[in-house]
Amino acid sequence: MKIASVKGFHDILPGETARWAWVEQRAREVFARYHFREVRIPILERTELFTRSIGDTTDIVEKEMYTFVDRDGTSLTLRPEGTAGVVRAYVEHALAQQEPVSKLFYFGPMFRRERPQKGRLRQFHQIGVEVLGRDDPAIDAEVLMLLHDLLVELGLRSFTIELNSLGDERCRPAFREAIRAFGEAHRGHLCENCQRRLERNPMRLLDCKVASCTALMATAPTMESFWCQPCREHLAAVRHMLDHASVPYKVAPRIVRGLDYYVRTAFEVKAEGLGAQNAVGGGGRYDGLVKSLGGPDVPGIGFALGLERVLLVLGAAVDEQLEPPLEAFVAPLDAEAELQTLAVARRWRREGLKIELGSASRSLKSQMRQADKSGAPFVFIVGEAELEAGAATVRDMLRKRDYRCAVSFRWTVPEVRAYLRSLGESAEEAPRHE
RNA sequence: GUGAGUGUAGCUCAACUGGCAGAGCACCGGACUGUGGCUCCGGGGGUUGAGGGUUCGAGCCCCUUCACUCACCCCA
What we know:
By secondary structure, the protein is of the alpha+beta class. It has helices at residues 14-33, 47-54, 59-64, 83-92, 95-98, 137-153, 172-185, 192-200, 211-217, 229-244, 289-292, 307-314, 335-350, 364-374, 384-389, 413-429; strands spanning 37-38, 44-46, 66-69, 75-78, 102-111, 123-132, 159-165, 250-251, 263-271, 279-285, 300-306, 328-332, 355-357, 378-382, 391-396, 401-408. An eight-stranded mixed sheet has the order 1-5-6-11-10-9-7-8, with helices on both faces. The longest helix is centred in the N-terminal third of the chain and has 20 residues, at 14-33. The chain is elongated and about 90 Å long. Mean pLDDT is 90; it is low at 430-434. It binds one RNA strand through residues 1, 4, 7, 58-60, 63-64, 81, 110, 112, 114-121, 124-126, 128, 193, 204, 257-258, 269, 274-277, 279-282, 304-310, 331, 333, 363-373, 379, 381, 383-385, 393, 395, 397, 400, 402.
């Protein structure tokens, strides 16, 4: 019986890893421009970190966590999201004492034990950012700008940033109660799920997709009418700043978010092509979280992007962005040629040339096939004649032309590259062979 | 956790009312000397997801089980 990977845990094979690396690289560049710095934190945390931050009644904590008891009896959990761990590290190392504002990003696997489907895995990857230490609207706007720039940089064509305010501890409880009362009054018209939500998490009634509920909730009290003055002004300021900087977004009074710690600013990124899922990312403000985890009363805001979903949306479009993996392929024809090319190739590789080496144990025909598949634009063929001349014959794969004993084994990589470039230029002027 | 669908070669899929398990792609090799893609020829590769049952005979019918996929819930 073969051993297969765990359900919902996928291998990412060489055919795909270049895409992942490209996305990560793009993201790093954007983060650098906004002066965010990377943190790398553990995948395993004490269970209470998540129960206390995410919220006892959320789906994540109630039914989706990978939790087990360690040998010494402590309960540990594979992180289902990134913010809790970042905040834990922030508190544990007293970063607030060292700098007034921390702008952080991370990249890594998250774990939720849900039933897998398109765009949803049990181990999935997120790229996320957190800003600790600022609660003014300008930082919210800046984070949303970063999010927008990142999505554009990654090549997402059609996406929407949906923005809302969830209110804060002053105004949200009243709204929550109003929704509960409203739902209670119309209990008979709610779908089964919403009837359950009524007790557990009434705010969720707002984003139910069942048509009858949507219709009913359209007549429900709105968050907007409950916002306290500071919340109202905060959102207005964020919007004003985004508008002024021409950052596109859509106001979405119904978005609610699945984690308890969010206050005020909350947002999601919606895109097409994800099956039943349509969110590639989401985030929001979490002003009370640091304090509730034993730290100073420091505000925070952040977001996370699901990498699998980003890659799903991008599809094959990413491939055109990838660098060609090889500059040349070297084909030795016999044992002596192999001995020489091994040494020469090694020297060139140390100088940065990306080359693949064939094997003299295979025929030239076979090596050419291999070279063709590798995508190398040139093949350096080395047989008896080339050894005598101390230079490789170059096969230009695109233009189907040979240059006998043209590339000296003694050349440096810049010389090799200059020569290969010159072939392209001269061939444009010269009449094409078939 | 609930529902539906699908399991045959590495991948995508055929195989009539039960009758010798196949194709395309991919991989490897060849088509006179040291040259790729196109074409042609050849080759390797299978416990038909697993276990049991019915039958002279099961990929196909029955039971059990496992896995995967999609959807619900919810989210990245």
